[in-house]
Write a structure and sequence with these properties.
single chain, 248 residues, mainly beta, elongated, six-stranded antiparallel sheet, ten-stranded antiparallel sheet, 0% helix, 44% strand, Lipocalin
């Protein structure tokens, strides 16, 4: 998820960097997802009697599973959600804002019922760029008898096929201001004093305060690799300490 690279950005040793002409954060960085980046708490779904519930979603969902748009509140990115049952192992969620599709999530359960994939897309950014990713899940607990196969508790164990615009960020530390920008048009410039900072260019994340915005922030940390130094046209090849960082 792209906003894993935008919401809740906190580099643990940021405050320890001394004043210098060019900080070690300056440059273009690319995410290297690992298993430690996945949420620690399972996702819980229930699809039964033509009703879909997701108690771990933010905001929580309790909607009819009839494929029709249903209004929700508490989500700045979209204002309606629909859930379509494709078959006995597949569902499709579609999120819209003002009648326009801004996100989708297709969940497919394996034939043995023990694993699943979620193919996720969203365009909650000022440029309207589509960001995508695939999640691999393992079943933690089954749903109640008679429920759809997506029901139960699921743990995300792997993230694959992340689109390039969800992985690359530009960082800069200048004085007491830390700035972030990504290819989809999201950016911020935050003071290192813990105050809230407006995030520009994203429909789903309005304020940054060394914390999280919404469900994307359930990811624990992200490892970054430097791909380009500031004022450089050549990618960085070294993998020494100055070319690696961890975002919490």
């Amino acid at each position: 998820m792209r906003s894993v690279l935008c919401c809740g950005l906190l580099i643990s040793w940021l405050m320890l960097v001394p004043a210098m002409a060019q900080s070690p954060f300056d440059g273009i960085w690319k995410a290297e997802p690992t298993e430690s980046d996945t949420p620690r708490e399972p996702e819980v779904y229930l699809l039964q009697d033509e009703t879909y519930r997701c108690t771990t979603c933010e905001p929580p969902l309790d909607i009819r599973a009839d494929g029709r748009d249903q209004k929700i509140t508490g989500e700045p990115c979209y204002d309606t959600v629909s859930l379509q049952v494709v078959d006995d192992r597949t569902t499709m969620e579609t999120d819209k804002r003002g009648g326009k599709t801004v996100g989708s999530s297709k969940m497919t359960v394996s034939s043995d019922g023990n694993s699943a994939t979620i193919d996720w897309k969203e365009s909650c950014n000022v440029n309207g760029d589509v960001v995508s990713e695939t999640f691999i899940l393992r079943r933690v607990a089954k749903g109640p008898r008679g429920s759809h196969s997506v029901s139960g508790s699921w743990q995300i164990v792997k993230r694959v096929n992340m689109s390039e615009n969800a992985m690359v960020v530009t960082l800069k530390l200048e004085g007491d201001t830390f700035s972030f920008a990504d290819p989809a048009g999201m950016s911020y410039a935050a003071k290192l004093d813990g105050t809230e900072t407006p995030i520009k260019g994203d429909l789903g994340c309005w304020r940054l305060k060394t914390a999280s915005c919404w469900r994307r922030a359930r990811f624990s940390n992200i490892r970054l690799r430097r791909v380009r130094n500031p004022r450089s046209t050549a990618p960085s090849q070294s993998r020494n300490r100055s070319n690696m960082a961890t975002k919490l």
